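**User:** My hope is that you can spare some time for a protein that puzzles me. As I understand it, each token names a local backbone shape. I would be glad if you read both lines and explained how they fit together. The protein I mean follows directly.
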Amino acid sequence: MDEKEFLAERFEEHRAHLRAVAYRMLGSLSEADDAVQEAWLRLSRSDADGIGNLGGWLTTVVGRVCLDLLRTRTARGEEPFDVRVPDPVIGSASGNGTGSGTDGTDPEHQALLADAVGLALLVVLQTLAPAERLAFVLHDMFAVPFDEIGPVVGRTPAATRQLASRARRRVRGTAAAPDADLARQREVVDAFLAASRGGDFEGLLAVLDPDVVLRTDPGAAFPGLARTVRGAREVAGRALHFRHPAHDVRHALVNGAAGIVAVADGVPVSVLGLTVAGGKIVAIDILADPERLRGLDLTAIEE
């Protein structure tokens, strides 16, 4: 084995971890893959023999790549991410979220499922300033020390700690942690589906948190559709329109939580991630963008 092959093998040992870091930063699976590939290119051009902690080095490199991309988006004045539903990670509803690789999904996909982050949390992360997001993701989610994050964001370790602290307060204030009992989550989702299909407005109110938020990403084909709706009565009114006789609704794990994939003629038309906390649905995130749906790994729900 030559030196390049040996380096490639060492890199592959870290790929799943790096993809998880990039996914949390960017909310996009394809962009996360691009960031990981860029990390490999930088590694292949570097003096690898001088890198003592390869995993730590690659993690900060991926963080820097993601930070540069986020800053570029900001400079271009692109649409803020608080109106964009992140790419969901889909798993089999019959699984436990950890995945065994037997459902046909690849190991990297399984790694994301095993350490899933809910869509509602990802949405909140995308509303943070780029430097805050990096400090929070690297430190709070991956235990990277502040003295290693500081040079990436151009701050002292103390200032970087403050960035993470501000991000942490924002996350705790707006992103509810889903109930741990997956079976109970599914019961609530089933009640939601039954009420929606039956046109039961009061039944919907019974399973929706009073402050529930509904976020919809329909894609560029429907630019006039309201993307964010708040409040149980408003969301219940929208939910009555979710039913569609031509759609086959399949249960799935969506970012490790109970969710739904709607399929028409064998083609997925939407993915619903539902956050259940305290026995109520506190957030519904719907991806209905045909272009983005085509790019998702939906192997786990195929019959």
Observations:
- The radius of gyration is 20 Å.
- The first helix runs from residue 3 to 12.
- Residues 97-104 have pLDDT under 50 and may be disordered.
- The longest strand covers residues 267-277.
